[in-house]
Design a protein that fits this description.
- By secondary structure, the chain is an alpha/beta fold.
- 26% of the residues lie in helices and 29% in strands.
- The chain is built from 5 helices and 8 strands.
């Protein structure tokens, strides 16, 4: 058995990926260097080199072989210039209708939330609207795989991503 510490990998690129039953439904996002600011909405996702996307797709395909057991998952990954390392893996609760939908749904009311207001304010908003047929329009240059998306998925809040 092996264990890797995210801090131990020299990050040429970092990011996250959703791995679904069909490869065409996967989402791959990332940034150059460390990914911590990307995951908390302080850095926009970047265009990734085609060679890196192919490496992440290959990794996703290896994980997909276990889809019947683990279902849809998200991973956080780090690329050291040679290998793509999985530094976190989580099961996804909900599927998306498209690549801009965080949680599918048709809520009665939609509230706009700006990424620049931060994760803590999103947590507060979610606690206020949970189970009230209210959805969130997440506005900002953040990835759907970010922690903003994670919070909305975990609490099953109907939500979409809108770029600024």
């Amino acid at each position: 058995a092996s264990l890797i510490s995210q801090n131990a990998v020299e990050s040429k690129y970092s990011g996250a990926s959703f791995i679904r039953e069909k490869p065409e439904d996967d989402i791959i996002e990332g940034v150059k260097g460390l990914g911590d600011k990307f995951m908390v909405g302080q850095q926009s996702k970047s265009e990734l080199p085609d060679s890196l996307i192919l490496k992440v797709q290959s990794l996703n395909d290896e994980i997909r072989k276990h889809h019947k057991i683990i279902g849809d998952v998200s991973i956080e990954w780090v690329y050291d210039g040679q290998d793509v390392w999985v530094v976190q893996l989580n099961q996804l609760k909900k599927g998306q209708a498209n690549k801009m939908t965080i949680v599918d749904g048709n809520p009665e009311k939609i509230i706009k939330f700006y990424v620049e207001d931060g994760l803590e304010n999103l947590r507060k908003l979610i606690s206020e609207i949970k189970d009230k047929d209210i959805g969130v329009e997440l506005i900002g240059n953040v990835g759907i795989t970010s922690h903003f998306g994670d919070l909305l998925r975990l609490d099953d809040v109907p939500s979409v991503l809108v770029k600024e």
